[in-house]
Amino acid sequence: MRRILGRGRPATSCPLRPAVAEPDRFSFPSGHATASMAVALSYAITFPRWTGPLLLLALAVGFSRVRLGVHYPSDVLGGQLIAMATAAGVWATL
Questions:
Q1: I need a labelling partner for 76 at 20 to 30 A (CA). Which of 24, 48, 63, 67 fits?
Q2: Residue 28 to residues 11, 55, 61, 71, 90: CA-CA distances in angstroms?
Q3: Its pTM surpasses 0.90
């Protein structure tokens, strides 16, 4: 999806220097945000008592990607929404 959309990272459009090395040129959607939300939702379904802490952890991962300067907030939100839609689709087929 990143290669199709081709959205550059924040460092390519503003004078910010990312705090970590950039893995590739494209940023949308955030793979870290997608994966962390997918894992959080999967475990939340299995362990409902842990839903709150798991979702907070997934949101913290997304925040860290923006704070490190490697993603825009919309990259993180997009990744998290992809994970939520995928989880809902999987849940509907179970």
A1: 48
A2: 14, 21, 15, 8, 23
A3: no
